[in-house]
Amino acid sequence: MIDHCPPQITQDHLNKGARVYVRQSTSRQVRNYPGSTEYQRDQKIYALRWGWREDQIEFYEDLGLSGSSADRREGFQRLLADIHEGKVGAVFCTDVARLTRTPRTFETLVCLCRHHRTLLAIDGQVFDLNDPVDRLLVLV
């Protein structure tokens, strides 16, 4: 069911995959706050509503790993690789802090998304990082 698809999403985006990124910083958070993990996984609902098929949606998870370094986060590294290979129409997450907490890693993500025209969907709001206003709004 396509539900009020945001105007930034084009058929080109829908022809590529959707990626849902899930991260919790510590093992204790994963154990004590399973609702947060589920809420992050539920970002998939937006992808389905906006036209991606179930088989196009993949989850990349780094549970129990801090966002302060991307080096040890396999899920995040796979996400960057998929964007670089042009496989991703949109990345879904609950907030930017789930993706990274460092400006350098965030800038890497932004550059890849811009180059490959990958959208960023944060808790149901879509951003086209090639639009300077959207780029600023992502940081707010």
Automatic annotation (TrEMBL):
Coiled coil: none
UniProt-listed InterPro entries: Resolv_N, Resolvase-like_N_sf, SSR_resolvase
Domain Resolvase/invertase-type recombinase catalytic: 17-140
PROSITE patterns in the record: RECOMBINASES_3 (PS51736)
CDD domains per record: Ser_Recombinase
SUPFAM superfamilies: Resolvase-like
Organism the protein comes from: Candidatus Methylomirabilis tolerans
GO molecular function, one term: DNA strand exchange activity
The organism's taxonomic lineage, starting at the top: Bacteria, Candidatus Methylomirabilota, Candidatus Methylomirabilia, Candidatus Methylomirabilales, Candidatus Methylomirabilaceae
Name this protein carries in UniProt: Recombinase family protein
